[in-house]
Specification:
Shape: globular
Largest sheet: 2 strands, antiparallel
Strand content: under 5%
Oligomer: single chain
Helix content: 55-70%
Length: 325
């Protein structure tokens, strides 16, 4: 009875709006649109209910249904990391805001931090080149032996960029290849790989280069190295071939472009990040899946990386305040 009353009320309202020429189409047209929207909402609700009740997860490679607790596909051996399962946790996630994938979240953090530094520098005149003294205070890498060197700079420099062109290029590459790598290993491993490769790249840079450096390119080269090793060892030819093309672009085309345009890419950071990612990929591809306990350990490691990076920026702020006196 209530449903009939609501339908009649809706018809009266539509007739009134049409009579007043606020709506210009026939009543049936609007009723059909409302019906389709209602059906879509009901279908989405039913799909969510089924997803929560599901006892299996589908392999992203071969489509086989596996038990929810499986860390690898029982048929083809592909990793099930990142494939959502049912249960109460999925029900809770349905009511929480989503930040998207780890790669897009990191890209958002890079852009947000750059925007904050542009504002701190005084506005749009700093968009193409941030003041060096500001970058030095917030965490640009300084080589070993210099008075300003600190270990926390190995982390802070990963998330800093000198200008909008520098940032845009790294965001383009990160959002192009990041989701592909994350699909293979899941968000937690991706975060650990990104942060550790970036720090390893700047460790190599601090040892070999006598100049300052910053940017996410070392971490991005870590993703390339990882994808190359993982794709080769796991037989994922599409990933391996894609990362091989990025390797040629990074180690052949980019140096030539830098020479032609008188740019100074940090090749030591690129090589350091790439080697770190390569070793990461070889080790992870050869090791066991780890099951639920292994996943919890990787999630803990990702949290540690996030806390360490936050602490590093905290130390940068503390050092800047101490220097100001």
């Amino acid at each position: 009875m209530l449903r009939r009353f609501l339908d009649d009320t809706l018809d009266l309202l539509l007739d009134l709006l049409i009579a007043l020429r606020i709506l210009r189409r026939p009543r049936a047209w609007y009723r059909e649109r409302i019906r389709r929207r209602r059906d879509a909402v009901q279908a989405e609700r039913e799909n969510r209910r089924r997803a929560i009740a599901a006892r299996h997860r589908m392999c992203p490679e071969c489509g086989t249904l596996n038990p929810r607790s499986s860390s690898r596909c029982e048929r083809c051996g592909a990793s099930m990391a990142g494939v959502p399962g049912g249960g109460w946790l999925r029900a809770v996630r349905g009511f929480l805001p989503s930040l998207g994938s780890a790669s897009t979240t990191i890209a958002g953090l890079l852009a947000t931090l750059f925007a904050a530094l542009v504002v701190a520098a005084g506005g749009f005149e700093s968009l193409f080149e941030l003041p060096f003294d500001l970058l030095l205070r917030v965490g640009v890498l300084v080589p070993f032996g210099y008075r300003e060197f600190a270990w926390w700079r190995l982390l802070t420099a990963v998330f800093l960029h000198a200008g909008i062109v520098h940032l845009a290029f790294n965001l383009w590459v990160l959002t192009s290849l990041g989701p592909r790598v994350e699909q293979e290993i899941g968000a937690a491993r991706f975060v650990v790989l990104f942060v550790v490769s970036g720090a390893a790249g700047f460790l190599a840079s601090a040892l070999l280069i006598r100049g300052t450096s910053l940017g996410a390119s070392g971490a991005i080269f870590g993703l390339i190295g990882f994808g190359l090793a993982w794709g080769h060892r796991r037989g994922v030819r599409a990933l391996r071939d894609e990362m091989l093309r990025w390797t040629v672009l990074g180690f052949v085309v980019l140096p030539l472009l830098g020479f032609a345009l008188h740019l100074r890419p940090d090749h030591a950071a690129h090589a350091g990040g790439f080697v770190c990612g390569l070793l990461f990929g070889l080790a992870l591809a050869a090791g066991p899946g780890g099951g639920r306990f292994g996943e919890r350990l990787w999630q803990l490691a990702a949290v540690v990386c996030g806390v360490a990076t936050t602490a590093a920026f905290g130390m940068a702020v503390a050092a800047a305040l101490a220097a100001r006196g």
